[in-house]
């Protein structure tokens, strides 16, 4: 009886620690779906907006001198859209690449980075043309990938996920070239959009001063 009493707790603990028991699979799958869905929700709402951030840095431009006002309007504009925005894109790019690495099956690192760069680049282009379409693209692709992952039983394995996590440092070490392409796309889009809005404002090159200030205010 004593031996049986001592055996049962150890047996229960081992069964609870085993990844093969039903409760462990359900719990792991539930947490995975919730975390990935939460990431996708925040990802597509952010990356699909033309202006990723609404910092409104122009409110800090309190100079009364016309020249200083124009100068700081341009500087704040460049800081928000040419420096901070690309940094945010880097964060989203890295996070999406890691998520796809975990759920995209037996794909190579190079292919995952290629798909990530193309997805974010296309979403950023569409965000300047039609934000709703950009949002649909940024939302549907990751959710479809998650669905394929869940409907492929062989892919969902704890040891498989751990093996993928071990590849994250290698993925991040090869991300720079792909990131550069996406950042260049963003900078070009922002510059083209700025020029377009500048001309739409009625400023023209003959009214450059007022155009620059209005350009910074619009964005």
Order of helices and strands: HHHHHHHHH
* Fraction in helix: over 70%
Question: For the CA atoms, what is the radius of gyration?
Answer: 24 Å
User: What is the approximate shape?
Assistant: elongated
Largest sheet: none
Mean pLDDT: 76
Alpha-beta classification: mainly alpha
Task: Give an account of the 3D structure.
The chain is an all-alpha fold and 219 residues long. The chain has one domain (2-218). The protein contains nine helices and no strands. The chain has helices at residues 2-17, 22-47, 66-103, 109-129, 131-150, 158-165, 168-173, 176-200, 208-218. The longest helix is centred in the middle third of the chain and has 38 residues, at 66-103. The protein is elongated and about 65 Å long. The protein starts with a helix and ends with a helix. The relative contact order is 0.12.
Ordered list of secondary-structure elements with their pairings:
Blueprint: H1 2-17, H2 22-47, H3 66-103, H4 109-129, H5 131-150, H6 158-165, H7 168-173, H8 176-200, H9 208-218
Helix pairs in contact: 2-5, 3-4, 3-8, 3-9, 4-5, 4-8, 8-9
Brief overview, please?
The chain is an all-alpha fold. It contains nine helices and no strands.
């Amino acid at each position: 009886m004593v031996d049986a009493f001592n055996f049962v707790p150890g047996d229960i603990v081992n069964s609870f620690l085993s990844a093969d028991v039903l409760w462990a699979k359900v719990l792991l799958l539930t947490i995975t779906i919730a975390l990935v869905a939460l990431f996708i929700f925040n990802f597509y709402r952010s990356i699909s907006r033309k202006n990723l951030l609404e910092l409104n840095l122009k409110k800090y431009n309190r100079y009364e001198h016309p020249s200083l006002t124009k100068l700081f309007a341009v500087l704040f504009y460049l800081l928000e859209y040419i420096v901070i925005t690309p940094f945010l894109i880097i964060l989203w790019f890295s996070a999406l690449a890691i998520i796809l690495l975990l759920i995209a099956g037996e794909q190579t690192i190079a292919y995952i980075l290629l798909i990530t760069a193309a997805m974010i680049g296309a979403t950023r282009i569409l965000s300047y043309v039609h934000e709703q379409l950009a949002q649909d693209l940024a939302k549907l692709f990751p959710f479809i990938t998650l669905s394929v992952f869940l409907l492929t039983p062989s892919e969902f394995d704890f040891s498989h996920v751990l093996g993928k996590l071990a590849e994250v440092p290698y993925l991040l070490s090869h991300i720079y070239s792909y990131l550069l392409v996406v950042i260049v796309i963003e900078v070009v889009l922002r510059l083209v959009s700025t020029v377009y809005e500048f001309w739409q404002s009625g400023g023209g090159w003959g009214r450059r001063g007022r155009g620059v200030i209005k350009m910074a205010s619009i964005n």
